[in-house]
Write a structure and sequence with these properties.
The protein is mostly helical. The protein is about 80% helix and about 0% strand. It has 5 helices and no strands. It is elongated.
Length: about 140
């Protein structure tokens, strides 16, 4: 089915591009810590920032790991999306408690609460079409 193959390829490309965000920002945070903000923080806060950056890097790499057979990784994709959405909800709570963050952080919020769930729904659609076409349960 050429339409299904095309949609699968577009989904793979979209996920590959969007996952660059957590991979790049996570790697940057691991290597440079809070240097991006220019704020002086304690060694413990710096350590925590690098740890969370490592998690972000890992999330992006795990999304990339779904790419080769994206149509069969629904469980992994949903779990990763859940983690991202929980992070986005946490960021949203912070926005309410402390005020508006930078535009980059607001962009992250959009990716976490809108783009990631939309990609997850799209992945489910592709997986369902694949299952119907090939009789996979």
């Amino acid at each position: 089915m050429p339409g299904m193959a095309r949609e699968r390829k577009l989904l793979q490309q979209a996920v590959a591009v969007v996952a660059v965000i957590p991979v790049a920002t996570g790697l940057y945070g691991v290597l440079f810590g809070q240097a991006l903000t220019g704020d002086a923080v304690s060694i413990s806060a710096e350590s925590h920032f690098r740890y969370l950056s490592g998690l972000l890097l890992g999330i992006g790499l795990c999304f990339w790991s779904t790419l080769p057979s994206i149509e069969i990784h629904t469980g992994r994709f949903r779990l990763l999306t859940l983690v991202v959405v929980i992070g986005g909800l946490s960021r949203l709570i912070g926005l309410g408690l402390t005020g508006l963050p930078s535009l980059f952080m607001l962009g992250g919020l959009v990716v976490e609460l809108i783009v990631a769930p939309a990609l997850c729904l799209w992945q489910t659609r592709v997986a369902n079409r694949y299952a119907e076409e090939y009789g996979v349960a």
